[in-house]
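Example 3.2
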Amino acid sequence: GLAAKPIIDIDLIIENPKDESSYIPQLEALGYELIIREPSWYQHRMLKLSNPMVNLHVFGKNCPEHWRHLLFKQWLTTHPDDLANYAAIKQLAKHNVKTTQDYNLKKQSLVRTIYQKIFTSLIGD
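Structure, written as tokens:
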């Protein structure tokens, strides 16, 4: 029931994302291409696959970003109004964008509002 772009986003959680030799060759053999390496952001790596279209995000164990993704998905599946608003903004955001960053910027305000609701529900005001 979640609005989706025609790209599958997957979080792959591994012991040590810095140890690229332990997982990158196997993923490349499956057709993935390493396109982003962000050591300063939770040791994030992103690989792409073109058929089917996949963004594979690699994080280490207990990475806060992975937990944020899970909380966001869970929230949307239990809050129909936010789900509808998110679906609508995703439809609007995909028009007239050239990059993923442009797309994300168009959604940013609503996404931040939803995260504020999630965190407030977990820890209170």
